[in-house]
Amino acid sequence: MAGTTEIAWTDATFNPWWGCTKVGPGCDHCYAEAFDKRVGGDHWGKGSSPRILSDSYWHKPLRWQRQAEKACEPRKVFCGSMCDWADKNAPADERGRLWQLIRDTPMLRWQMLTKRAPNISKLLPHNWGSGYDNVWLGVTIENRKHGLRRLDVLREIPAKVRFLSIEPLLEDLCEIDLTGIHWVIVGGESGGGFRKMEKTWVENVIHQCREQDVAMFFKQWGGTSRNKGGNLLNGYEIKEWPRV
Ligand code: SF4
Fold first, then answer.
1. Could you write out the DSSP letters of every residue in 19-84?
2. In the chain, which stretches have pLDDT less than 50?
3. Which residue segments constitute the domains of the chain, with CATH numbers given?
4. Atom 7 of ligand 1, residue of closest alpha carbon
5. Nearest CA to ligand 1 atom 8
6. Which of 29, 49, 132, 183 has the fewest CB atoms within 10 Å, measured from its CB?
Protein backbone atom coordinates (compact mmCIF):
# COMPACT_ATOMS: atom_id res chain seq x y z
CA MET A 1 0.00 0.00 0.00
CA ALA A 2 1.19 3.50 -0.76
CA GLY A 3 2.01 5.61 2.28
CA THR A 4 3.85 2.87 4.13
CA THR A 5 5.51 3.52 7.47
CA GLU A 6 8.33 2.28 9.69
CA ILE A 7 5.90 1.91 12.60
CA ALA A 8 5.57 -1.86 12.95
CA TRP A 9 2.02 -1.93 14.32
CA THR A 10 0.36 -0.16 11.41
CA ASP A 11 0.33 -0.09 7.61
CA ALA A 12 0.31 3.67 7.00
CA THR A 13 0.16 6.99 8.80
CA PHE A 14 -2.13 9.94 8.19
CA ASN A 15 -1.86 13.37 9.81
CA PRO A 16 -4.84 15.73 9.68
CA TRP A 17 -2.40 18.52 10.61
CA TRP A 18 1.10 18.91 12.04
CA GLY A 19 1.73 20.42 15.45
CA CYS A 20 1.19 19.85 19.15
CA THR A 21 2.14 20.92 22.68
CA LYS A 22 3.93 18.71 25.20
CA VAL A 23 1.73 17.26 27.94
CA GLY A 24 3.90 14.87 29.94
CA PRO A 25 7.21 13.05 30.29
CA GLY A 26 6.34 10.80 27.34
CA CYS A 27 6.67 13.95 25.19
CA ASP A 28 10.17 14.91 26.40
CA HIS A 29 11.88 13.54 23.30
CA CYS A 30 8.99 14.01 20.87
CA TYR A 31 10.23 12.65 17.55
CA ALA A 32 7.50 14.54 15.67
CA GLU A 33 8.66 17.92 16.99
CA ALA A 34 12.26 17.06 16.09
CA PHE A 35 11.22 16.04 12.59
CA ASP A 36 9.13 19.18 12.15
CA LYS A 37 12.14 21.33 13.09
CA ARG A 38 14.41 19.34 10.80
CA VAL A 39 12.24 20.13 7.80
CA GLY A 40 12.06 23.81 8.74
CA GLY A 41 8.72 23.82 10.60
CA ASP A 42 7.71 25.68 13.77
CA HIS A 43 4.46 24.00 14.80
CA TRP A 44 5.11 22.96 18.42
CA GLY A 45 4.32 24.66 21.69
CA LYS A 46 1.73 27.14 22.96
CA GLY A 47 0.95 29.90 20.50
CA SER A 48 2.26 28.10 17.44
CA SER A 49 0.02 27.47 14.45
CA PRO A 50 -0.54 24.02 13.01
CA ARG A 51 0.61 23.06 9.55
CA ILE A 52 -2.42 22.47 7.31
CA LEU A 53 -2.03 19.72 4.72
CA SER A 54 -2.96 19.88 1.03
CA ASP A 55 -6.08 18.43 -0.58
CA SER A 56 -3.96 15.94 -2.49
CA TYR A 57 -2.59 14.65 0.82
CA TRP A 58 -6.16 14.29 2.15
CA HIS A 59 -7.02 12.17 -0.90
CA LYS A 60 -4.47 9.49 0.00
CA PRO A 61 -6.72 7.52 2.39
CA LEU A 62 -9.41 7.39 -0.31
CA ARG A 63 -6.85 5.70 -2.54
CA TRP A 64 -5.92 3.29 0.28
CA GLN A 65 -9.62 2.54 0.70
CA ARG A 66 -9.91 1.57 -3.00
CA GLN A 67 -6.79 -0.60 -2.72
CA ALA A 68 -8.11 -2.32 0.39
CA GLU A 69 -11.49 -2.92 -1.27
CA LYS A 70 -9.81 -4.44 -4.30
CA ALA A 71 -7.64 -6.70 -2.14
CA CYS A 72 -10.57 -7.49 0.18
CA GLU A 73 -8.21 -6.76 3.04
CA PRO A 74 -8.65 -4.03 5.66
CA ARG A 75 -5.59 -1.86 6.23
CA LYS A 76 -4.48 -0.14 9.41
CA VAL A 77 -3.87 3.63 9.48
CA PHE A 78 -2.24 5.34 12.45
CA CYS A 79 -3.80 8.78 12.74
CA GLY A 80 -1.44 11.35 14.17
CA SER A 81 2.26 10.56 14.02
CA MET A 82 2.79 14.35 13.72
CA CYS A 83 0.00 15.57 16.00
CA ASP A 84 -2.45 14.48 18.68
CA TRP A 85 -5.93 14.14 17.17
CA ALA A 86 -7.58 15.05 20.53
CA ASP A 87 -5.65 18.30 20.98
CA LYS A 88 -8.32 20.92 21.71
CA ASN A 89 -6.13 23.65 20.26
CA ALA A 90 -6.06 21.93 16.90
CA PRO A 91 -8.04 23.29 13.93
CA ALA A 92 -11.69 22.26 14.41
CA ASP A 93 -12.38 22.26 10.66
CA GLU A 94 -9.66 19.71 10.07
CA ARG A 95 -11.00 17.41 12.82
CA GLY A 96 -14.49 17.54 11.28
CA ARG A 97 -12.98 16.75 7.93
CA LEU A 98 -11.11 13.85 9.50
CA TRP A 99 -14.27 12.24 10.87
CA GLN A 100 -15.89 12.51 7.44
CA LEU A 101 -12.83 10.88 5.88
CA ILE A 102 -13.03 8.07 8.42
CA ARG A 103 -16.70 7.50 7.53
CA ASP A 104 -15.75 7.43 3.84
CA THR A 105 -13.09 4.74 4.32
CA PRO A 106 -14.73 1.74 6.01
CA MET A 107 -12.00 -0.67 4.87
CA LEU A 108 -9.36 1.29 6.78
CA ARG A 109 -8.81 0.58 10.48
CA TRP A 110 -8.11 3.99 11.96
CA GLN A 111 -5.82 3.79 14.99
CA MET A 112 -6.57 6.99 16.95
CA LEU A 113 -3.99 7.45 19.70
CA THR A 114 -3.88 10.33 22.17
CA LYS A 115 -2.29 11.53 25.40
CA ARG A 116 -5.32 13.77 25.98
CA ALA A 117 -7.79 11.18 27.22
CA PRO A 118 -10.19 13.64 28.96
CA ASN A 119 -10.82 15.31 25.58
CA ILE A 120 -11.82 12.15 23.72
CA SER A 121 -15.51 11.97 24.54
CA LYS A 122 -15.96 15.72 23.82
CA LEU A 123 -14.40 15.41 20.39
CA LEU A 124 -16.11 12.26 19.11
CA PRO A 125 -18.63 12.81 16.29
CA HIS A 126 -22.34 13.14 17.18
CA ASN A 127 -23.19 9.76 15.61
CA TRP A 128 -20.40 7.83 17.34
CA GLY A 129 -22.92 5.61 19.17
CA SER A 130 -21.17 2.47 20.40
CA GLY A 131 -18.14 3.35 18.28
CA TYR A 132 -17.41 3.33 14.55
CA ASP A 133 -16.59 -0.14 13.26
CA ASN A 134 -13.37 1.13 11.68
CA VAL A 135 -11.92 3.09 14.60
CA TRP A 136 -9.58 1.79 17.28
CA LEU A 137 -9.28 4.25 20.19
CA GLY A 138 -6.04 4.30 22.15
CA VAL A 139 -4.12 6.20 24.81
CA THR A 140 -0.42 6.41 25.56
CA ILE A 141 0.99 5.22 28.86
CA GLU A 142 4.56 6.12 29.72
CA ASN A 143 4.38 5.81 33.52
CA ARG A 144 1.87 5.23 36.30
CA LYS A 145 1.29 8.87 37.27
CA HIS A 146 0.34 10.19 33.84
CA GLY A 147 -0.66 7.02 32.04
CA LEU A 148 -2.98 5.07 34.32
CA ARG A 149 -5.54 7.85 34.61
CA ARG A 150 -5.72 7.94 30.80
CA LEU A 151 -6.44 4.22 30.87
CA ASP A 152 -9.28 4.75 33.33
CA VAL A 153 -10.85 7.35 31.03
CA LEU A 154 -10.45 5.21 27.92
CA ARG A 155 -12.11 2.11 29.33
CA GLU A 156 -15.35 4.09 29.88
CA ILE A 157 -15.62 5.25 26.28
CA PRO A 158 -17.56 3.08 23.84
CA ALA A 159 -15.32 1.78 21.07
CA LYS A 160 -15.01 -1.34 18.95
CA VAL A 161 -11.33 -1.62 19.93
CA ARG A 162 -9.55 0.08 22.83
CA PHE A 163 -5.78 -0.06 22.93
CA LEU A 164 -2.78 1.14 24.91
CA SER A 165 0.50 2.32 23.46
CA ILE A 166 2.89 1.78 26.36
CA GLU A 167 5.72 3.65 24.72
CA PRO A 168 8.14 4.85 25.78
CA LEU A 169 7.83 2.66 28.86
CA LEU A 170 9.68 4.67 31.52
CA GLU A 171 9.11 2.63 34.69
CA ASP A 172 7.58 -0.54 36.05
CA LEU A 173 3.81 -0.13 35.78
CA CYS A 174 3.28 -2.65 38.63
CA GLU A 175 -0.31 -3.84 38.68
CA ILE A 176 -2.58 -2.64 35.85
CA ASP A 177 -6.26 -3.32 35.33
CA LEU A 178 -6.76 -4.12 31.64
CA THR A 179 -10.53 -4.47 31.85
CA GLY A 180 -12.09 -3.22 28.60
CA ILE A 181 -8.76 -3.13 26.75
CA HIS A 182 -8.30 -5.26 23.63
CA TRP A 183 -4.71 -4.61 22.62
CA VAL A 184 -1.46 -3.44 24.21
CA ILE A 185 1.65 -2.19 22.40
CA VAL A 186 4.93 -1.94 24.33
CA GLY A 187 8.12 -0.23 23.25
CA GLY A 188 11.22 1.53 24.48
CA GLU A 189 12.45 4.98 23.57
CA SER A 190 14.85 5.57 20.71
CA GLY A 191 17.11 8.44 19.69
CA GLY A 192 19.81 10.49 21.40
CA GLY A 193 19.24 10.68 25.16
CA PHE A 194 16.87 7.70 25.12
CA ARG A 195 15.66 6.45 28.52
CA LYS A 196 16.45 2.78 28.95
CA MET A 197 13.62 0.30 29.37
CA GLU A 198 14.22 -2.64 31.72
CA LYS A 199 13.35 -6.16 30.65
CA THR A 200 11.47 -6.84 33.88
CA TRP A 201 9.10 -3.94 33.15
CA VAL A 202 8.24 -5.46 29.77
CA GLU A 203 7.81 -8.93 31.21
CA ASN A 204 5.45 -7.54 33.83
CA VAL A 205 3.18 -6.04 31.15
CA ILE A 206 3.26 -9.22 29.08
CA HIS A 207 2.44 -11.33 32.10
CA GLN A 208 -0.62 -9.20 32.86
CA CYS A 209 -1.75 -9.27 29.20
CA ARG A 210 -1.57 -13.06 29.31
CA GLU A 211 -3.44 -13.25 32.61
CA GLN A 212 -6.15 -10.85 31.45
CA ASP A 213 -6.39 -12.26 27.90
CA VAL A 214 -5.33 -9.10 26.07
CA ALA A 215 -3.47 -9.18 22.72
CA MET A 216 0.07 -7.83 22.92
CA PHE A 217 2.53 -6.34 20.43
CA PHE A 218 6.15 -5.84 21.43
CA LYS A 219 7.47 -3.14 19.15
CA GLN A 220 11.10 -2.50 20.06
CA TRP A 221 13.67 -2.18 22.83
CA GLY A 222 14.77 1.24 21.62
CA GLY A 223 18.25 2.71 21.90
CA THR A 224 20.24 5.33 20.10
CA SER A 225 18.39 4.40 16.92
CA ARG A 226 15.00 2.85 16.28
CA ASN A 227 16.35 -0.58 15.35
CA LYS A 228 19.33 -0.61 17.70
CA GLY A 229 17.89 -2.97 20.31
CA GLY A 230 15.72 -5.05 17.97
CA ASN A 231 12.30 -6.43 18.83
CA LEU A 232 13.01 -9.87 20.29
CA LEU A 233 12.05 -10.88 23.78
CA ASN A 234 13.85 -14.02 24.92
CA GLY A 235 14.52 -14.76 21.24
CA TYR A 236 10.93 -14.33 20.02
CA GLU A 237 8.84 -11.64 18.36
CA ILE A 238 5.46 -10.90 19.94
CA LYS A 239 3.08 -9.52 17.31
CA GLU A 240 -0.53 -10.11 18.25
CA TRP A 241 -3.53 -8.14 17.03
CA PRO A 242 -6.81 -7.29 18.71
CA ARG A 243 -9.39 -10.04 18.28
CA VAL A 244 -12.19 -8.29 16.40
S1 SF4 B 1 1.43 14.37 22.44
FE2 SF4 B 1 2.68 13.24 20.94
S3 SF4 B 1 2.96 14.69 19.23
FE4 SF4 B 1 2.27 15.88 21.01
S5 SF4 B 1 4.18 16.62 21.95
FE6 SF4 B 1 3.56 14.70 22.96
S7 SF4 B 1 4.71 13.08 21.89
FE8 SF4 B 1 4.73 14.93 20.59
1. BB---SGGGTT-HHHHHHHHTT---BSTTPPPEEPPHHHHHHHHHHHHHHHHHT--EEEEE-SSB-
2. 1-2
3. 12-220 (3.20.20.70)
4. 27
5. 30
6. 49
